[in-house]
Amino acid sequence: MRYHESIGGVFLLKKVINVAVERDGLWLDSDIVYAQVPGWLGNATRNLRLSVIRHFATGDDTKFPVIFWFAGGGWMDTDHNIHLPNLVDFARAGYLVVGVEYRDSNKVNFPGQLEDAKAAIRYMRANAAKFQADPDRFVVMGESAGGHLASMLGLTNGMTEFDFGDHLDVSSDVQVAVPWYGVVDPLTAKQGSATDAFDFVYRNLLGAEPEDAPELDAKANPLTYVSKKSVPFLILHGQQDQVVPVKDSEVLYEALNQAGVDADLYELETAGHMDVQFMQPAVFKLILEFLKKHLN
C-alpha cells in the first residue's frame, strides 16, 4: 500500500510491505575452543578452534543435522574459516556448518590430525543442545588433506584408538562422509601425482617417506579401514587434478562397493585441484540429495 504524508508542506510517498519469513536467520559463532593440545615444542598449551554457522534459536525441540568441514592445505597450513562464505548454502538448506581447525604437520604427525577431528566431533555431540544439533546426523566433508580426514572419520566409527582428550564419554562416530579430491593412500598419491612439487607433504605428515614406512603409510591409508560397517560415501574428484590422482578416489570407491557400502563417485570432467567448480550450485545439489537419502 502507498501512503501520502505531508511533512513541512512537502508530500512524501512511503511504501509499506508485508514480508513473509521464508528462511531462518543465521548466527556465526567463531573460533570456539573445542580442545587444548600440546603447544610450542610440547612445552605450552595450544587452543584448537571451530566456527559454527547456526540457526536462530527456534525455542522448541528442533534439531539440525551437522556438516563438519575440514579445509585443505597439504597438512601444512589450514584455515577453518576460509570456506565458510561458500558453505553458507548448506546452512540455508537446513544444516549447521562447523569449520574445524586441526593441527598441521609442522606441529604433529599423523594421527594427530585425526585425533583433533574426532575431538571436534565429540565436542559438538557433547554440546548438541546448545547448538540445536542432531547428534545422530553428523556429516564429515573436506577437501584434499581435509578430504583425507573426512574419509578417515567415515571409516573409523566404533574405534577408540584415535580418541584422546575431552568428552570421551560421547562417541566420535559420524553418519556420512563426503571427501572432495581427498588423499587416499599417501604412497600412491605421491607416486601418482602429475607433479612432484608436493611430495614433501607426505613425508611431513607421516614423519617418514611413505615408501620407507609401510606401517605408517597403512595407518594413514583410508583403504586400511574399509569394511561393511563403513558409512555412506559421496566422493568428488576432478578429472584434471594434477595434485591428487583421481585414480585413488576410484580405488576407494571400488573398495567401498566391494564391501557393500553405499557409495557414489562423481568426477568433474574439467576440474582441477581445489577448483571453483566444486563450489557451484550443481555440486551442492548433488551433495544435498545424497545427504537427504542417507540421513534419516
TrEMBL record:
Keywords: Hydrolase. GO terms for molecular function: hydrolase activity. The keyword Hydrolase applies. InterPro entries: AB_hydrolase_fold, BD-FAE-like_dom, GDXG_lipolytic_enzyme. The keyword Hydrolase applies. Residues 60-256 form the BD-FAE-like domain. This is BD-FAE-like domain-containing protein. It comes from Limosilactobacillus fermentum (strain NBRC 3956 / LMG 18251). The lineage of its organism: Bacteria, Bacillati, Bacillota, Bacilli, Lactobacillales.
